[in-house]
């Protein structure tokens, strides 16, 4: 092969070499420079930039495929890249406009939303950072900021929203509601609404219809009446050793519990067990609430008892003690601690119930814990508590609940009053 030939082929090679050197020395630094400008610009106010795209068109190697262009898409940009951007923002829920390749105000707003949600500066400029996140794996879809919905015209059990929350807060401020303001219209809220209605001359159905809502949020809404007018007819019935019922006493509104309460909800131990109609309805609401909380398996083992039946229970207990060798006097006083004297049992009212769990001691069961915490919200009280034994004269009974109505039970719970104390306070 000859070494010094000026062949046309050699000349072309030399020219090509010179040309590429010129490109590398002169054009590349300019390109890098403008690239640098671009990078700094991503966090800055847009300024006119060199036309990178046209510069990059002057590539040394026409076969070289350029890496993705580091361009910023912004208001006024147009073309396929904008289209791709819009399409992606649309898929993710940030953009709701047309995928037309025109970067307008809508696209800018969508970019801002996307940036804000992804911890980027929300400047509406789709630069490298924004776009690599947008097309990357760690991208998240649009999470709408909660907007308070306009107050519905009516709310009821089961509703869960901010309007319920507002209702609960208002009822709490007025003293009708004592539980947590959680936006969940449960049994407690229903009882608070019912109590509010009953004290405002509205039909006490526990549902917050338009009329009730208007009354609740009215300037004229009254605070809860913490001490109801001591009208003897409206006060809870007191039955104890000092206040026995007459021999033939029988409440007027008794219903058969097994026939009244769904067997799937609660087991009624005896087929003949009766209870007051309103109290039975409250039992149903209460056990439904317990079930909603995942607590089931309650049993009703006692309800209404006639004076005659109580006499039988009393005599049986006395007989047991007599067998133990006690004197009659001692046997009777021992019996009185656990079995009410005939006529003095709360069970004569049809408003008292013994709640148990089959096959186990009630104390400490989830059912007992739930009952003691929540029965008050449904108008029941734990009638015989340990710290009130001296007043009631009855040893604590975890299983015995008494219906007094929610207007009384809530106050008795909040002020830790047993029935004797509560009535004494009201009638003083
Ligand atoms: Zn009882």
Element-level helix/strand string: HHHHHHHHEHEEHEHHEHEHEHH
**SS strand fraction:** 5-15%
Integer average pLDDT = 83
- Identify the quaternary structure here: single chain
What is the strand tally?
Answer: 7
Bound molecule kinds, no repeats:
zinc ion
Q: Please work out how many helical segments DSSP would assign.
A: 16
The helical percent reads 40-55%
CATH architecture of the domain at 254-305 and 345-427, please?
2-Layer Sandwich
| Overall body shape | elongated
- CATH domain class name of the domain at 254-305 and 345-427: Alpha Beta
Question: How far apart are the first and last residues' alpha carbons, in Å?
Answer: 130 Å
Sequence of strands across the biggest β-sheet: 2-4-5-7-6
Any idea of the CATH topology of the domain at 254-305 and 345-427?
A: Muramoyl-pentapeptide Carboxypeptidase, domain 2
**What ranges have pLDDT less than 50 throughout 5 or more consecutive residues?**
22-60
Kindly describe this structure.
- There is one protein chain.
- Helix content is 42%, strand content 6%.
- By secondary structure, the protein is mostly helical.
- Among the domains are: 19-71, no CATH class; 80-134, Muramoyl-pentapeptide Carboxypeptidase, domain 1 (Orthogonal Bundle); 162-216, Muramoyl-pentapeptide Carboxypeptidase, domain 1; 254-305 and 345-427, Muramoyl-pentapeptide Carboxypeptidase, domain 2 (2-Layer Sandwich).
- The chain has a five-stranded mixed β-sheet. A two-stranded antiparallel sheet has the order 1-3.
- It is elongated and about 135 Å long.
- It starts with 7 loop residues before the first helix and ends with a helix.
- It binds zinc ion (ZN).
């Amino acid at each position: 092969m000859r070494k010094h030939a000026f062949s046309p082929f050699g000349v072309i090679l030399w020219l090509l070499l010179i040309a590429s050197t010129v490109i590398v020395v002169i054009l590349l630094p300019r390109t890098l420079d403008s690239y640098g400008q671009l990078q700094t610009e991503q966090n800055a106010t847009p300024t006119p930039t060199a036309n990178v795209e046209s510069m990059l068109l002057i590539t040394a190697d026409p076969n070289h495929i350029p890496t993705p262009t580091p361009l910023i898409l912004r208001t006024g940009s147009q073309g396929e890249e904008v289209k791709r951007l819009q399409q992606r923002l649309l898929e993710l829920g940030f953009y709701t406009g047309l995928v037309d390749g025109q970067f307008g105000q809508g696209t800018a707003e969508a970019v801002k939303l996307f940036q804000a949600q992804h911890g980027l500066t929300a400047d509406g400029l789709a630069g490298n950072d924004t776009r690599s996140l947008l097309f990357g794996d760690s991208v998240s879809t649009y999470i709408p900021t909660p907007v308070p919905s306009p107050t519905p015209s009516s709310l009821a059990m089961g509703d869960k929203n901010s309007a319920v929350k507002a209702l609960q807060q208002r009822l709490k401020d007025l003293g009708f509601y004592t539980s947590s303001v959680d936006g969940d219209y449960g049994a407690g809220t229903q009882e608070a609404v019912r109590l509010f209605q009953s004290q405002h001359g509205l039909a006490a159905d526990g549902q917050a219809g338009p009329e009730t809502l208007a009354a609740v949020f009215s300037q004229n809404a009254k605070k809860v009446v913490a001490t109801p007018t001591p009208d003897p007819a409206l006060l809870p019935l007191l039955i104890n050793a000092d206040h026995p019922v007459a021999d033939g006493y029988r409440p007027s509104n008794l219903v058969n519990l097994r026939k009244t309460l769904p067997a799937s909800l609660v087991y009624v131990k005896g087929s003949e067990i009766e209870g007051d109609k309103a109290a039975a309805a409250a039992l149903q609401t209460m056990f439904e609430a317990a079930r909603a909380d995942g607590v089931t398996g309650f049993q009703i083992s006692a309800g209404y008892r006639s004076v005659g039946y109580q006499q039988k229970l009393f005599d049986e207990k006395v007989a047991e003690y007599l067998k133990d060798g006690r004197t009659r006097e001692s046997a009777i006083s021992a019996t009185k601690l656990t079995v009410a004297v005939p006529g003095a049992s709360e069970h004569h009212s049809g408003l008292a119930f013994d709640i148990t769990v089959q096959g186990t001691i009630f104390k400490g069961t989830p059912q007992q814990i739930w009952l003691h915490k929540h029965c008050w919200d449904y108008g029941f009280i734990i009638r015989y508590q340990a710290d009130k034994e001296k007043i009631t004269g009855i040893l604590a009974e975890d299983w015995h609940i008494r219906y007094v109505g929610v207007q009384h039970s809530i106050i008795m719970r909040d002020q830790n009053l047993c029935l004797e104390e509560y009535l004494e306070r009201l009638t003083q």
